[in-house]
């Protein structure tokens, strides 16, 4: 059985989005297909990592009893789709996928095993990633039938066109949009007033929108 490099496995409290406060087991995969400007996640396999095959990872995951769910995170977990197809049938834990929502075809391969999708919408103004909307559109189309919400990390450069594009996607697929200001350490990089104004701009176009900063930074957990 093939082994894969996993960056780390740890229990913590979900600090983002509508599942904030739930205890999860985080399984962090190495590698990502994007390079977002604000990314501060250590996911490279250059230094520390642990090697697991699908059975070993399932044994490790199944030994945790007090968690709400297992968060597959990264990096981009869907880059390891062949491994996921071996691993996911071996656990009955609830699976929460954190993804950059650009790899629709890979998602489709593991869709039956995913309970909750936390999908990013990448804004060029905050990430530097261009034209991501067409990838997200295809991705959300594949998410039909699975609980899905979209996380939008923004800074003070967000444009009206980006707000409109996000609301069009939200409406088209009936998904909740979660606005998350870019943080520097435990501080928001925008003022509370600005964040509230951006929330209002979204709400003028689409009602299913919330503003939730990264709570784990206030809790001082990972
Ligand atoms: S998609 Fe996520 S892990 Fe990948 S570069 Fe962007 S923020 Fe970092």
Protein architecture, described:
- This protein is of the alpha/beta class.
- Helices cover 32% and strands 25% of the residues.
- The chain is built from 8 helices and 11 strands.
- It has a 9-stranded mixed β-sheet. Strands 9-10 form a two-stranded antiparallel sheet.
- Helix 2 links the parallel strand 4 and strand 5.
- Helix 3 runs parallel beside helix 5.
- The site of iron/sulfur cluster has 11 residues, from loops.
- Iron/sulfur cluster (SF4) binds next to loops.
**Series of secondary-structure elements, N-terminal to C-terminal:** EEEHEHEHEHHEHEEEHEH
Portion in strands: 25-35%
Task: Determine the structural class based on helices, strands and strand pairing.
Answer: alpha/beta
Approximately how much helix is present in the residues? 25-40%
Tell me the distance between the termini. Answer: 31 Å
User: Can you count the beta strands?
Assistant: 11
Instruction: Report the radius of gyration as a whole number of Å.
Output: 17 Å
Runs in which pLDDT lies below 50 for 5 or more consecutive residues are: none
Major β-sheet annotation: 9 strands, mixed
Q: Which shape, going by the Cα principal axes?
A: globular
Strand order of the largest sheet: 3-1-2-4-5-6-7-8-11
Mean pLDDT across residues: 95
Number of helices: 8
Chemical compounds bound to the protein: iron/sulfur cluster
């Amino acid at each position: 059985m093939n082994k894969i490099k996993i960056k780390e496995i740890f229990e913590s409290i979900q600090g983002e989005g509508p599942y904030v406060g739930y205890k999860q087991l985080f399984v962090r995969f190495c590698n990502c297909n994007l390079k977002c400007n604000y990314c501060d996640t250590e996911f490279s396999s250059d230094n520390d990592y642990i090697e697991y095959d699908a059975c070993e990872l399932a044994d490790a995951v199944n030994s945790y009893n007090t968690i709400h769910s297992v968060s597959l995170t990264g990096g981009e977990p869907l880059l390891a789709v062949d491994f996921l197809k071996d691993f996911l049938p071996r656990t009955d834990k609830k699976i929460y996928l954190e993804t950059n929502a650009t790899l629709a075809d890979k998602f489709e391969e593991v869709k039956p095993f995913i309970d909750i999708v936390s999908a990013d919408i990448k804004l060029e103004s905050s990430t530097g990633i261009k034209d991501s909307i067409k990838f997200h559109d295809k991705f959300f189309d594949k998410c039909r039938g699975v609980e899905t919400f979209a996380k939008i990390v923004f800074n003070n450069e967000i444009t009206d066109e980006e707000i409109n594009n996000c609301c069009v996607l939200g409406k088209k697929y009936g998904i909740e949009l979660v606005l998350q200001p870019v943080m520097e350490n435990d501080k928001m990089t925008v003022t509370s007033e600005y964040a509230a104004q951006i929330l209002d701009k979204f709400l003028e176009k689409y009602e299913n929108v919330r503003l939730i900063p990264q709570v784990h930074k206030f809790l001082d957990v990972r």
